[in-house]
Amino acid sequence: MNLLVTGGCGFIGSNYIHYIFNTFSDITVINIDKLTYAGNLLNLQAIEKKYGGTRYFFEHADIANADAVNSIFEKYDIDAVVNFAAESHVDRSINDPSPFITTNVMGTQVLLTAARNAKIERFVHVSTDEVYGDLSLDDPAFTEETPLHPSSPYSASKASADMLAYAFYRTYGYNVSITRCSNNYGPYQFPEKLIPLIFTLASADKPLPVYGTGMNIRDWIHVSDHCKGVHLTLMKGKAGKAYNFGGNAERTNLEVIRTILHDLDKSEDLITFVQDRPGHDRRYAMNYSLAQKELGYEPEYSFERGIKETLNWYKKNTDWLKDVQSGAYLEFMKKWYGNN
């Protein structure tokens, strides 16, 4: 299979590419990435070194640029597309929604159109549980039948992209499926997200900003389990259907932060409560029984195992964290691909 992966230099996309090369010997990956602040070539340096030019190819491109995307589809004999490319940080979307509309909505439309025109056999669009809105403490977990009710510009842009994917199925009969997952954690996560942010700040004995009371609840999924779910969808998912993936690990933000502090042997006095985020969703939880039934999905990681392995990875990869924080990885990318 020749597999086009978009956003492959980001956190989840790069983990998916590692999953492919660690699991299969007969898949070639073409990776499209715009290389925004969260896209890091260092995440795939080992893959590039071992497979570059044979089973791995990188294309520096914006998925919202139709000419660039069409040229890539013409250049390679592509069998399937997995679309991870997205602006994904809620706080950034509140500050400026426009990049989220451009990449998440227009970019998805460009990709779907190009893939359909090129007669690509299979398309998986990667989404988020945030398209469902939020839950009260007593509500049952989200199912694929839960109405979409996004709260932030980010989740609204992802819900729009989901609807485009579904429209391509309904209107054109295109073979596209949608995946929705809960909060990911694991290696290579950009340190603006909760777990690497708290690890980084706590390691330096800096104050830990916690929104509101810290009692917002998320269902945490290890990125390896998410990647497995995405690939199961690619291979077994039905056209026009969405599949939920969760980690069966609901935790309050405060519980996650205290787990990290305990692991680092740091004081809870570092916790500093700050004004809550506008429109902050109360709780997410995912019912993934459909994925269990139709795809054979089951998360392998407990939260206790996953968070321990994740924190150990950050401890062993402090140079990666320093490069990301210093901007050195941007200089690394310029050396490889220039300033384009």
UniProtKB/TrEMBL annotation:
EC top class, as a word: lyase
Gene3D superfamilies (alphabetical): NAD(P)-binding Rossmann-like Domain (3.40.50.720), UDP-galactose 4-epimerase, domain 1 (3.90.25.10)
One MF annotation (Gene Ontology) recorded for this entry: dTDP-glucose 4,6-dehydratase activity
E.C. no: 4.2.1.46
A Pfam family: GDP_Man_Dehyd
Domain of life: Bacteria
Keywords attached to this entry: Lyase, NAD
All copies of domain NAD(P)-binding, residue ranges: 4-310
InterPro entries: dTDP_Gluc_deHydtase (IPR005888), NAD(P)-bd_dom (IPR016040), NAD(P)-bd_dom_sf (IPR036291)
Catalysed reaction, written as an equation: dTDP-alpha-D-glucose = dTDP-4-dehydro-6-deoxy-alpha-D-glucose + H2O
Cofactor section: NAD(+)
Family matches, as NCBIfam families: dTDP_gluc_dehyt (TIGR01181)
PANTHER family: DTDP-D-GLUCOSE 4,6-DEHYDRATASE-RELATED (PTHR43000)
Family (UniProt): Belongs to the NAD(P)-dependent epimerase/dehydratase family. dTDP-glucose dehydratase subfamily.
Protein known as: dTDP-glucose 4,6-dehydratase
Protein species of origin: Halodesulfovibrio aestuarii
Lineage per the UniProt record: Bacteria, Pseudomonadati, Thermodesulfobacteriota, Desulfovibrionia, Desulfovibrionales
Gene responsible for this protein: rfbB
